[in-house]
What we know:
The protein has 2 domains: 32-127, no CATH class; 132-268, no CATH class. Helices cover 9% and strands 40% of the residues. The protein has 2 helices and 16 strands. A 7-stranded antiparallel sheet has the order 15-10-11-12-13-14-16, with no helix packed on it. Strands 1-9-8-7-5 form a 5-stranded antiparallel sheet, with no helix packed on it. Strands 2-3-4-6 form a 4-stranded antiparallel sheet, with no helix packed on it. The longest helix is centred in the N-terminal third of the chain and has 21 residues, at 6-26.
Amino acid sequence: xxxxxxxxxRLTERWERFRAGxxxxxxxxxxxxxxxxxxxxPATPSPLDGVPGLWSATSTTxxxxxxSRENLTLVSSGEPVVGTITATLSDEESIxxxxxxxxxxxxxxxxxRYMIRTRDSASPTLTGFHGxxxxxxxxxxxxxxxxxxxxxxxxxxxxTANPEVSGVARLVGEVVFEHNGTEYRLAAEEGALGSxxxxxxxxxxxxxxxxxxxLELTKPRxxxxxxxxxxxxxxxxxxxxxxxxCPAPAPANRLPLPIExxxxxxxx
Length: 268
């Protein structure tokens, strides 16, 4: 049993503020909790399930044709969509393109194919959201590690939450840490402002936690030390919805122990 000390109280309160901010960031009007469908665009103009208009795509351009009766508007300007509009994206890009009532239709390119996703602000996942379930704060899973940067970044093929979409992780080095006398290594990608993004599997996956999770570490200190606080492990959007294309961890990022800290599986 962990003894509550002033320092532990401070760390727990700081973590609770992090949890509150995380919940606020998720519960936006057309955010990740509002995804209700995913569809690939066909080669010839065709209707799609649950959305107005005729949709199609070539290898370079997506097209939408609509009439005034279908009441579609551009998200960017609110102007009605009448006739044919087009958009060109690069792989992994997305835009919130058009809107119909409470539904925003996201256009994206994944695996070099155009797709749409619907984001409905009336989705039960959003309207019934009261925060992400999480394990209790565990100070024993706040660890000190060292970042070992690779001489050059390495591109590693990965899977994603959608079996039709493959991905690539650009790994810049490894975070090395010890837990209960055993050394572990997790490969990291580089985030904003020099932060490190570590995606990982562990033995709690699909039991008490979701299929995989990620952890953002602050920029390494001058001596390359980093704090590995598993209490800040968060779910990818695909933990909440079947319509995500979230990247899986690099195959080697598999911890042979349960990490029961951070976010739990929100579907259990």
